[in-house]
Amino acid sequence: MLAAGESPAYLGPIVALLLAAGLIGALFVRLRVVPIVGFLLAGVVIGPHQLGLVPDVEMVEAAADIGVMLLLFTIGVEFSLERLAKIRRFVLGGGTLQVVLTTAAVAGLCLLFGADWNVGVFTGFLVALSSTAIVLKVVAAKGATQQPVGQASVGTLILQDLAIIVMVLLIPVLGGQAGGTWEVVRALGTAALVLTAVILVARKVMPPLLERIARLCSPEIFLLSIVAIALGVAYLTSLAGISTALGAFLAGMVLSESRHSAHALSEIMPLQMIFSAVFFISIGMLLDLAVLAQLWWIVLLLAVAVVLIKVLTTFTAVSVLRVGPATAVGSAFLLAQIGEFSFVLQQTGAAYGLSPAGMGDEGGQILVAVTVLLMTATPALGALGAAIARRLPRNAAAEAAAGLEPDTDTRDRVLISGWGPVARNLGAYLEANGVPSTVTTLSPDLAADAESRGHTVVRGEATKATVLHEVGMDRVKLIVIAENDSEAAVHIAHVLHGVAPGVPIVVRPTDVPDITGFYDADVKRVVDTHRAVTEPLGGAVLDLLDIDHTHRGHPDPTVVRHLRPDPDTACAHMEDLPPVLPKSPGCTECLRKGRHDWVHLRICAQCGFVGCCDDSPGRHSRWHADQAGHPVVMSAEDGENWGWCFLDEHLVTDTGAAPAENV
After folding, report:
1. Beta bridge partners of residue 613, listed in sequence order
2. Nearest-angstrom CA–CA distance, 658 and 93
3. pLDDT in tens, 376-387
């Protein structure tokens, strides 16, 4: 049974699809273009109309259906009701006006060229939608999520995604298979009932359900539950006549009201990325380059027309809120493409005999070509809009009046990864000193405890991008990794250093610290649990014994030191020296004996023992070298950067980085 046989028929196309997506996506990342554009072009290349590497389109479409559901689900999770409330004026005002104006403008042009009114409105629906996935990635890449342009764009996208519900319900009316005003009222009423049900479930059912699941502290069960909720709600809404994609979006909105929304998003995001890649590849596979070669001039003409229409309508809609011309122009160019969910709408319309501009299959090909072209051009359009906006006056007062938060990139808070007794005391200390803190933890009970003490809490792992986005790393001034073993702490430190390379990291592992791992992760301070307890205890005992134990307080026992001598001048004993943590803030042996009469201090480059020099009475640095067989030391004195081998009596310059600065 395990012998090699014929490879499964589906394996070749899947490998071709994933390889093309990975290679072309990586190329576009190197070119600083959002990888979604690469996925679209990968689909064009391997599709049945070109190379034909994936002839079974049905299999790809099935995966793409799951992809669009998970994509809409994650977008729904990010669009919480609380977030909607913050920018409700913009969503309900500017967003609604943008959809209405764009639909009306496109419908008017279709009527002008002889199309029926229902075809014109349907085509207007297709053009009115923008690409939520691409715009959000472009905004995030620019770090403009909290800027007025980013918030204005997000507000419009929220309304567009909500408007899809009404558009889908109106398609049977536009297709002539449901008649009269009553059907329109029924469709709108159905949308209202569905949204009401979503709000009720979001507020009453989902929070306690997810709380019970999260208490299991099992990432596997949590992920399975989230996927089950996403696809299960999508299936149930499909039974009510609403598309599975919209059902998944509503499931995300339901989940967004839970305190575990960030955790859920972080767990499902890897799956969403894979299936979304398949979704965008499937869109590219729809494009026939032969048709494009014949109709290229129409595609270019319509692409220019779409950009002009959407820039004008979006600019008008945003300007109505008096946010200033700079914000309006930046948002208008960011939203000037056709969105991925237009294909969902197109497929729904095709079932009722509707096609873009009434052009049938040819119209579908033109829509795909225009969409792929404008999606590819979105980063360039966004840059053009930003360049124009910089030349226009910015109205801060108008932005504030419209409910848009200004860009406040101030690093003023501490991120605490993990919560327990030590982190709890640290949080209280920070609060007493007026320093705000954000806590990340997976445990619902610990999260509730941190919240009860007034801290901002984000549920989830600090290594997940969505959790860090929720934290707001642009505001973090210092990172403390507490309540983790060394292996987990090293992993978290590496991730956080990559996300925020300029932010210092303090680590307090619960077991023996992995000094090399922390050094490689550029950790600035390592608080050894045993020393952190022993030193204050020893100080308290010596105080009660009336023994003077004051010392100079160096070297800092939380700063990792590493002697890296010049390899051309180093002796044989200086090879492969590890990073070390100084064992004490003074001569280790002198402090043990209650003495403080050393002259200079040296740190053992092998184990971190701190000893006094040969000019000191104890000469404990040389004593330790003889006792432990560790002949190499480095200077612990400020401004001195050298190492010494007692056996070879050899002095070398330390070529490594200077000790970390105090934080």
Report:
1. none
2. 56
3. 888 889 889 888
